[in-house]
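Entry:
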Amino acid sequence: MTDSSMRCCTRLFRLCCLVLMLVASPASQGNDIVARNAVLSPSEDGYTLAADFTVNLNARLDEAIARGIALYFVVEFELTRSRWYWLDEQVVSRSQTFQLSYHALTRQYRLYSGALHQSFTSLDDALRIMSRVRNWQVIDKNQLRPDQSYQAAVRMRLDLSQMPKTFQVNALANRDWSLSSEWVRWAVIGADSAPGPGNSSGSPVAGPVEAR
């Protein structure tokens, strides 16, 4: 191998190491979302989730929104059941996407969730609404087996996969674009009867909430 080829391989190896180091950096270093107060409540059709998030955007993300770039935040919920003989069973997997953008002509921030949208005069107001998840049905009726133990988990993260490719590439080289809360997990015990309005026996039993 020639000296030039050796130098080229060395530079390529260093570049690969740099990319891997940036991608593998702990999420907590870019962690500006905190999940808290996660609660499952019985409803007529199953169980609904309520959760609060503290979302602090860094200067780079503030600038991106001000320039008209839409940011996508995903709230993810999982319900799993432990199995001693195999991997944990994933009973439920749900996600809810929020699109946050700024429109210079109207000088308003817009928050989309599915077909619904709201307009706000300030970014703080938009983030405040996005940070409060309420009445989100995550578990259907009869999905919980009586007396079975489960683990519920919820988090919020910035979803780069829905953004333009150029920003996805930029995110690999800048931790400012790595925004995610830790998973908040808590224990759930299946109800003895189907949940319904006024049926307290249908409520799951939740243990202490913890972030992992």
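The longest strand covers residues 89-103.
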